[in-house]
């Protein structure tokens, strides 16, 4: 007859519960698995499966499960998972910001629809570029690399850290500037071309006031914008590949930065 002691049962629960908290927080905060269209049962099931795989190799601290220290460890795991998920959110927000910039210059800022994932109205171009980036991320096996980083994070940030390095959270906050920097870099060729057209139409309006610039300018901006979008699509794969590589490298650096200084 197999006998299980209370200490063994508590060890098994801790080896599953604490990694499960980190993984669940990451899946809930990430844009791929945390989307509202993904059933909650699938999120919890995937988190439980990964936690059971990781549990045998996770080193456990000598802390009782039902204690204030145990609650602190649970909060630590949730914060780590959310921080990793925010990195992925910032990465995909780059292409959404690009769609906002381009749509504003093309005159398509009014072409919006309700996005159930974010609960807000999104520009059509933002949604279009977001789906391309998401499919490209899956094609490059980015989701598998992220799960690998999540699994190896238990070596960089083991259970029972007792605190974080504040510089890691500052590093995460500064990474939010990537949305505007990379988003404008991707949209700059198209935005620059449309800006030249708008300046030309402004000069034309001053030189020939009898012409209705609005009737000429909107179709011109739309046609040139669509033509430039076709050119942009030929090189967007290289840009997204570099963006994903930088974000995954930053995620590893963030885990190292969050480790408390000895």
Provide a descriptive summary of the structure in words.
Helix 3 packs antiparallel against helix 9. The chain contains nine helices and two strands. It is 74% helix and 3% strand. The protein starts with 5 loop residues before the first helix and ends with a helix. Strands 1-2 form a two-stranded antiparallel ribbon. The relative contact order is 0.13. It has 262 residues and is mainly alpha-helical. It is elongated and about 90 Å long.
What keywords describe this structure?
mainly alpha, elongated, 3% strand, 9 helices, two-stranded antiparallel sheet
Structural category is mainly alpha
Number of strand elements: 2
What fraction of residues sit in β-strands? Answer: under 5%
Taken in chain order, the helices and strands follow as HHHEEHHHHHH
Spatial strand arrangement across the major sheet: 1-2
Summarize the structure.
With 262 residues, this protein is mainly α. The chain has nine helices and two strands; from the N terminus they run αααββαααααα.
